[in-house]
Amino acid sequence: MPVARYCLVAVDCPDPAALAGFYAALLGGEVRQDGEDWYDLYAPGDHRIAFQRAPGHRPPEWPRADDNSQQLHLDLKVDDMADAESQVLALGGMPLDLDDEDGKRGFRVYADPAGHPFCLVRA
Prior knowledge:
By secondary structure, the chain is of the alpha/beta class.
């Protein structure tokens, strides 16, 4: 029997409303505010991501493994990599590593507007 049940992933950021909006545009779903410093995205598939204000937030530096390494990242499946990339960049995402070896690697790495890495993964 498990000790706990998964509830959500919480993401530290300087502007939780803006970052929740970015991920809502990327994944779909509904953003709900739960206080001045906390927003939840209820994404399709019964998934929940929370965004909390973190004063002095410093984004992780991908792909470092020292004192400012990435803490976690999201993998997001896409059917059309080029179309998804175009939309991510239009939403304010930033490219970190786009060399997917002409599709052999199967993923590309971006940062959200607060600097958190995430991957688009070919479905």
